[in-house]
Design brief:
- It is built from 19 helices and 18 strands.
- By secondary structure, the protein is an alpha/beta fold.
- The protein folds into 3 domains: 234 residues, FAD/NAD(P)-binding domain, CATH 3.50.50.60; 112 residues, no CATH class; 105 residues, Polyamine Oxidase, Chain A, domain 2.
- The strands form 4 sheets. Strands 1, 2, 9, 10, 11, 12 and 18 form a 7-stranded mixed beta sheet that branches. Strands 7-6-14-15-16-13-17 form a 7-stranded mixed beta sheet.
- Helix 1 links the parallel strand 1 and strand 2.
- Helix 4 crosses helix 5 and helix 5 crosses helix 6.
Length: 502
C-alpha cells in the first residue's frame, strides 16, 4: 500500500497526526499493535459494562489549539469534573492540594516544625548540583518533607532509589512548586477553598488545578472519535499490526515498511514520511540496517504498570478521583475511583469500581503474577488501607500496560540526544512524536502538540517547527493564549535553519 504518511501507533499523538493530515487531504495510514483499542495508555477499558481509565487522564490545557481540537473531535461529550485527590500516609489522609490546618493536625506541631526547620536549613545550605530527584526535591522542600511525601511514592512508581532518578523528572512534574508556594496555597485552601493556586511569582501551578474536563465515558471516547474521523476523511487504520521492519530508499526518497499481523503474516507499505509514536527502542531495532545509535536505544528503560479493577458492593467509597498511596506497608501506588471521574463509568449506582495501580517492570514478580494473585493482593491491600473489606469485593479484572513511563535515569538525556541527532541527520522524513516516541514523560496534551506541529511541518513541506523544543511539561499550556503563542514562537525555526523536509 502506497501513501504519503505512515503513522506508527494509534495513541493520542498518532491519531492527532492522522486526523489533522487526512483533514488536509494528505493520504495517511496508521498501524496499531492492539487488536481492539485505540488510544494507547489513554484508552478506556470495558469489563462487564464497567469502564475504567488506564492511569487517569485529565483533559486540562490552556492551549487554545489543543482545546479547540478536543472540541472539534468530540463536541458533545465533555463533562466538567471537580479535581479531588488525597495522599494516604501513615494511616491518615492529606488533602492535595494541602490544607494547612489538616496537615498540621495530621503531622503534629513538632513534626511540622521540624519540616519547616529542615526546609530552612536546605535554603541556607542548598545542594549546588541537584542532579538527582532526591537532591532537587530536598532543595525545594527540605529533607524531612522529601522523606514523608515524595520518597516512598516515587520509588514505588519508578522501582529505583530517588538517588538514581534524574532531577529532570522532578523539575518537569513539580515545576513551579516549592515549600513557600505549598504553604501559601495550603493556608489559602483552608480559608478560601475555591481560590486560584499560584506559586511565589503569581503563576498558576499546573499540579494544583481545581477542575478538569473529561469525556463522559472515559478518554477512549476521544480517540475512538479521532479514529472514526480519520477513516471518514480517507485514512486507513490497521489494528493488530505491529512494526516489524522499515528501510529508507534514498534514491526514491521513500520508506518501505513491514508490519506483522497477529497471525504472523506480513503487511507491506510504502510511504514518503513516517511518524512514530512507538517506543524509541522498538523503532530503532526495526530500522534496516540498524543505526549506530542502537546501543543507546537498548539502554533506554521503561516502567510498566498493572491496573487491578475491583467491583465493590458499596455505592461510593470516597469522593476523590484518586488517592496517592505513600504508605510503604502496601505495594499499591495509587487508587482510582472511576465514578468520581464520571458517573457513567459505573453502570450500577449501588456499586463502586476502583482501580488499584501497581508499578512494575515487565517480567518481574508483579508483572508475571496471575490475574487471580493480583486480584487477591488488591483485595487484601484495600482492606489494609481500610477502604473495603475483602468480602465486599464482588469481581475484578487485570489490565497490564507495557512501557507506560519512560524512565529518567542517569544518562537518559545523552542517550536520547545521540539517537535524535543520528536519526534526524540520516532520515529527515522520520518524525518522532509523543511520550514514548520522544522518551519524554509528558501528558496527552503535550503529545498532541508534538503531533500537531509535525503535521504542520509535513503539510508545509519544510521544517517550520523544532518539535524537540516543545516544553516537556507543556508549561505553555498553563500560561494562557499569550503563553501558547510564545511557545509556538520558541519552537519555530529561525529562517537560516529552515530546511526542506523531503
Amino acid at each position: 500500500m502506497t501513501n504519503d504518511v505512515f503513522v506508527i501507533g494509534a495513541g493520542p499523538a498518532g491519531l492527532t497526526a492522522s486526523y489533522l493530515l487526512t483533514r488536509k487531504g494528505i493520504e495517511t495510514t496508521v498501524i496499531e499493535a492492539d487488536p481492539t483499542y485505540v488510544g494507547g495508555i489513554s484508552r478506556t477499558a470495558n469489563y462487564k459494562g464497567f469502564l475504567f481509565d488506564i492511569g487517569g487522564h485529565r483533559f486540562f490545557s490552556r492551549s487554545r489549539e489543543v482545546v479547540d481540537l478536543w472540541n472539534e473531535i468530540l463536541p458533545q461529550d465533555f463533562i466538567e469534573r471537580p479535581r479531588l485527590s488525597r495522599i494516604y500516609y501513615d494511616g491518615k489522609y492529606y488533602s492535595y492540594p494541602l490544607k494547612a490546618f489538616e496537615a498540621l493536625g495530621n503531622l503534629g506541631y513538632i513534626e511540622s516544625a521540624m519540616c519547616v526547620m529542615s526546609f530552612m536549613y536546605r535554603q541556607m545550605f542548598p545542594l549546588e548540583k541537584a542532579e538527582t530527584f532526591h537532591d532537587w526535591v530536598a532543595n525545594q522542600f527540605g529533607e524531612r518533607l522529601f522523606s514523608i511525601f515524595f520518597k516512598t511514592y516515587t520509588e514505588k512508581v519508578w522501582g529505583m532509589s530517588c538517588d538514581e532518578i534524574s532531577a529532570d523528572w522532578a523539575a518537569q512534574r513539580i515545576k513551579g512548586l516549592d515549600l513557600w508556594s505549598a504553604m501559601a496555597n495550603a493556608l489559602r485552601n483552608s480559608i478560601a477553598p475555591n481560590g486560584p493556586r499560584t506559586n511565589s511569582n503569581g503563576e498558576v501551578i499546573k499540579t494544583l488545578i481545581e477542575s478538569f474536563r473529561y469525556p463522559r465515558k472515559g478518554p477512549g471516547m476521544m480517540w475512538d472519535a479521532a479514529a472514526a474521523k480519520t477513516r471518514q476523511q480517507g485514512g486507513q487504520i490497521h489494528m493488530g499490526h505491529s512494526l516489524h521492519k522499515m528501510r529508507f530508499d534514498e534514491a526514491a526518497q521513500r520508506w518501505s515498511i513491514e508490519a506483522k499481523r497477529q497471525d504472523g503474516s506480513i503487511a507491506q507499505f510504502s510511504s514518503r514520511h513516517v511518524i512514530s509514536s512507538a517506543p524509541i527502542r522498538e523503532l530503532v531495532h526495526a530500522i534496516d540496517p540498524l543505526p549506530d545509535c542502537v546501543a543507546a536505544a537498548d539502554n533506554l528503560r521503561y516502567r510498566d504498570f498493572v491496573t487491578v479493577a475491583l467491583v465493590v458492593n458499596k455505592p461510593d467509597l470516597f469522593p476523590d478521583n484518586w488517592i496517592y498511596i505513600h504508605e510503604p506497608s502496601v505495594k499499591v501506588g495509587r487508587i482510582q475511583n472511576f465514578r468520581s471521574w464520571s458517573p457513567e463509568m459505573v453502570p450500577d449506582p449501588n456499586l463502586a469500581c476502583l482501580g488499584l495501580e501497581y508499578f512494575c517492570f515487565e517480567g518481574d514478580g508483579l508483572w508475571n503474577a496471575s490475574d487471580e494473585e493480583l486480584i487477591a493482593l488488591a483485595k487484601k491491600e484495600l482492606a489494609i488501607i481500610g477502604l473495603a473489606q475483602e468480602d465486599e469485593i464482588l469481581d475484578g479484572c487485570v489490565v497490564r500496560q507495557k512501557k507506560a513511563y519512560p524512565v529518567y535515569d542517569e544518562g537518559y538525556r545523552e542517550r536520547v540526544g545521540s539517537i535524535r541527532d543520528e536519526l534526524a541527520a540520516r532520515y529527515p522524513t522520520l518524525h518522532l512524536v509523543g511520550r514514548n516516541g520522544m522518551h519524554k514523560y509528558n501528558n496527552q496534551d503535550h503529545a498532541m502538540m508534538t503531533a500537531m506541529l509535525t503535521a504542520e511541518n509535513i503539510a508545509a513541506g519544510k521544517l517550520i517547527y523544532d518539535i524537540w523544543n516543545v516544553n516537556e511539561d507543556a508549561e505553555y499550556h498553563e500560561a494562557g493564549e499569550s503563553g501558547a503563542a510564545e511557545a509556538l514562537s520558541s519552537v519555530r525555526l529561525v529562517p537560516e535553519k529552515v530546511r526542506k523536509a523531503g
